[in-house]
């Protein structure tokens, strides 16, 4: 009776000690070594330097958030970008990387819970009788079977916040991966839209050159007729033929340029160039009005800046993980089961066994390895902060450059259009004078070449304006509506 009471009291004392230890671990779990994260300070300007002279505009309320390509009002372009979003292989790679990062977050969260193991098995063993004269039967009598089953539970108390800092680092890395995915998707969308707009300008250039070739062909025919009538010389015919063949060569050159843009669009959508083609159209998408928000709003939307900032968060948490190595790990474990030499009474009370107890493990000396790891993580943090700030500076530079570029192209387009109108009028007057026999054909050739050059220059400036508008939208983070979505990882 006394022994039974002593056993019960001992068991109670053990339970109380374990409860107190676990409670202490939970209290200490509120402490996490290492610095708490704070976003590095960035002082954005009150407004962009090149914003003066920009008209304030708002996109249509029906514009889907982030679907910035819809500003160009081209249904075919919208369909191409949607296909890119679904089928681009580079986007698929970044999506897979993000899923890997999500899996690491799930694994880090799983470390907060106990680990439960269960095992069952049978072993057959024997020991020699120690005599060479032992018979086979006596040796066989030393063989014994052991049946065992065991369940064990272990749990690491996050006393110093190592697990929490690790989870914080993994979440930061996962969010950086999500932002990298958004940045890559935006970059590829921008590339496709630029290719599409340039292709449409080439279509317009082809129509211009085709119409010019027809006009030059008529001029050659007229010159040949005048030569036969003795009105003009052979030199005028040669000049007309040279002008016609040169323009035809320029038209042929546009064919391979268009093919390059078309093939690039196909690859961006994840299909082979042989399986894709774009028919020519008669129109070029119009330049959109781009709403330029204040820099503080812009910083919250640009995905590459978000990725750099999340990398700083992960690097900051890794400092805490490194510093927690200075402190011992507390593990609570419990195991129990049954072990018997016979199967019949294997799972019976006399054959049970159990063990329970805490384990405190720490490193007393490591030759400065932990200190070196802390120094390394702090240096990595400083590196990511510098990268974040440089990313912001590069972003400001891109926006300012593209805003200036668009404004300059707008001014240039107005002057170029005026020059084109003057060239057209000069061509009309010169052609009439040639038909009346007042001037030589060489004068007509010169004016025709000037008019064609101005026509192509106007189209080239329009192409540059369209490309610069896409680049500015991408530099602003793409789309409108506030901060970029960075969903919490599961």
Question: Could you characterize the architecture of this molecule?
Answer:
The chain has 490 residues and is of the alpha+beta class. The protein folds into 2 domains: 32-110 and 159-327 and 369-475, Outer membrane efflux proteins (OEP) (Up-down Bundle); 115-126 and 143-157 and 328-361, Outer membrane efflux proteins (OEP). It is 61% helix and 10% strand. Strands 1-2-3-4 form a 4-stranded antiparallel β-sheet. Helix 3 packs antiparallel against helix 5 (162-228) and helix 6 runs parallel beside helix 10. The chain is elongated. It starts with a helix and ends in a 15-residue tail after the last helix. Its main location: membrane. It is found in: Cell outer membrane. Residues 122-141 are annotated as: Disordered.
How are the strands of the biggest sheet laid out side by side?
1-2-3-4
Total number of strands: 4
Rounded to the nearest angstrom, the radius of gyration is 39 Å
How many helices does DSSP assign? 10
Q: What would you say the CATH architecture of the largest domain is? A: Up-down Bundle
CATH fold-level label of the largest domain: Outer membrane efflux proteins (OEP)
Q: Give the N-to-C terminal Cα separation.
A: 55 Å
Q: What is the average per-residue confidence, as pLDDT, rounded to a whole number? A: 83
Give the % helix.
55-70%
Strand content: 5-15%
**Low-pLDDT runs:** 1-29, 55-64, 133-139, 481-490
């Amino acid at each position: 009776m006394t022994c039974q009471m002593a056993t019960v009291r001992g068991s109670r004392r053990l339970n109380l000690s374990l409860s107190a230890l676990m409670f202490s671990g939970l209290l200490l779990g509120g402490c996490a070594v290492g610095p708490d994260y704070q976003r590095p300070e960035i002082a954005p300007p009150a407004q962009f330097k090149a914003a003066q002279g920009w008209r304030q505009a708002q996109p249509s309320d029906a514009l889907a958030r982030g679907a910035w390509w819809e500003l160009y009002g081209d249904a075919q372009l919208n369909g191409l970008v949607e296909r890119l979003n679904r089928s681009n292989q580079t986007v698929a790679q970044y999506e897979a990387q993000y899923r890997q990062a999500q899996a690491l977050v799930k694994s880090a969260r799983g470390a907060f819970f106990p680990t439960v193991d269960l095992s069952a098995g049978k072993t057959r063993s024997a020991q020699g009788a120690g005599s060479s004269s032992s018979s086979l039967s006596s040796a066989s009598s030393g063989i014994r079977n052991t049946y065992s089953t065991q369940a064990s539970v272990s749990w690491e108390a996050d006393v110093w916040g190592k697990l929490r800092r690790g989870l914080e680092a993994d979440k930061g890395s996962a969010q950086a991966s999500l932002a990298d995915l958004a940045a890559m998707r935006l970059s590829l969308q921008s590339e496709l839209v630029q290719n599409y707009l340039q292709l449409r300008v080439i279509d317009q250039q082809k129509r211009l050159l085709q119409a010019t070739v027809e006009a030059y062909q008529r001029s050659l025919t007229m010159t040949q007729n005048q030569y036969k009538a003795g009105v003009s010389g052979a030199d005028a015919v040669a000049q007309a033929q040279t002008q016609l063949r040169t323009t035809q060569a320029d038209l042929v050159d546009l064919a391979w340029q268009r093919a390059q843009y078309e093939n690039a669009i196909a690859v961006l959508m994840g299909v082979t160039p042989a399986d894709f083609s774009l028919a020519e159209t008669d129109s070029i998408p119009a330049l959109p009005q781009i709403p330029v928000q204040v820099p503080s709003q812009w910083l919250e939307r640009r995905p590459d800046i978000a990725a750099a900032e999340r990398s700083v968060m992960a690097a900051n948490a890794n400092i805490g993980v490194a510093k927690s190595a200075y402190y011992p790990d507390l593990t609570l474990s419990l195991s129990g089961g049954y072990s018997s030499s016979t199967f019949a009474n294997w799972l019976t009370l006399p054959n049970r066994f159990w063990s329970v107890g805490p384990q405190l493990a720490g490193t007393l000396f490591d030759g400065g390895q932990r200190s070196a790891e802390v120094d390394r993580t702090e240096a990595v943090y400083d590196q990511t902060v510098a990268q974040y700030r440089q990313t912001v500076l590069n972003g400001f530079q891109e926006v300012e450059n593209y805003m200036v570029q668009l404004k300059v192209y707008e001014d240039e387009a107005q002057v170029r259009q005026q020059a084109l109108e003057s060239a057209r009028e000069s061509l009309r007057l010169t052609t009439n004078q040639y038909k009346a026999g007042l001037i030589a054909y060489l004068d007509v050739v010169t004016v025709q070449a000037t008019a064609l050059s101005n026509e192509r220059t106007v189209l080239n400036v329009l192409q540059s304006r369209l490309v610069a508008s896409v680049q500015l939208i991408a530099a602003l983070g793409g789309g409108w509506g506030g901060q970029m979505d960075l969903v919490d990882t599961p």
